[in-house]
Amino acid sequence: MPVTDDAVMPFLLISAFRRLVDAVHADLANEGFPGVRATHGFAMQAVGEGCSGVELAARLGVSKQAAAKQAAALEDLGFITRGPSPTDRRERLLTPTPRGREMLRLSADGFRREVAAWRGRVGDGAVDATLRALAGVADGRSAVDLSFWS
Fold first, then answer.
1. Domains in the chain: how many in total?
2. Is residue 121 part of a domain?
3. pLDDT tens, residue by residue, 98-139
4. Residue 146 belongs to some domain of the structure
5. Does pLDDT of 147 surpass 60?
6. Contact 74/100 with Cβ under 8 angstroms?
7. How many whole angstroms separate alpha carbon 66 and alpha carbon 76?
8. CA distances (Å), 114 to each of 25, 36, 75, 106, in order?
9. In the chain, N or C: fewer CB atoms in 10 Å?
């Protein structure tokens, strides 16, 4: 299929995404964060400054059980703590740790570095147009809102 065939769009997007994420994960491993996966980054973005497990499930568009497993994985990596909620004794509040915040900071730096390399390859105009186009088809969703994915 030629690159101009609209049917290649999902394959080009996933290929570009994979290369971007793989490069950032290699950088993270070199900075002392081996084993970080894309799902960890997505979940940390969804945790934000803190949320409950139910909120995490809603933000990620997954079941409460899947969110609980993801929270356990993040806790095992030292990226979050789970503590009592100030408003509901039955609920646990997920809060990012300094290590979790550092992983996100390094990830953002890595993504910016990789996109800068894209700019060097294809030019600022092409990258800016791609960002605008992707934002235009995102239906007004936040860049970290994955609740529609399920």
1. 1
2. yes
3. 999 999 999 999 999 999 999 999 999 999 999 999 988 887
4. no
5. no
6. yes
7. 15
8. 11, 17, 28, 12
9. N
CA dihedral 75, 78, 84, 90 (to 10 degrees): 0
Three-state SS for the chain is: CCCCCHHHHHHHHHHHHHHHHHHHHHHHHHCCCCCCCHHHHHHHHHHCCCEEHHHHHHHHCCCHHHHHHHHHHHHHCCCEEEEECCCCCCCEEEEECHHHHHHHHHHHHHHHHHHHHHHHHHCHHHHHHHHHHHHHCCCCCCCCCCCCCC
Tokens of 74: 């993040």
Amino acid symbol at 129: A
Give this prediction's pTM: 0.82
Q: Are 96 and 77 in contact (CB under 8 A)?
A: no
What tokens were used for 71?
């929270």
Range of 33's domain?
16-136
CATH of the domain at 44: 1.10.10.10
Q: Whose structure tokens read 């803190």?
A: 50
- Tell me, yes or no, whether 144 lies in a domain: no
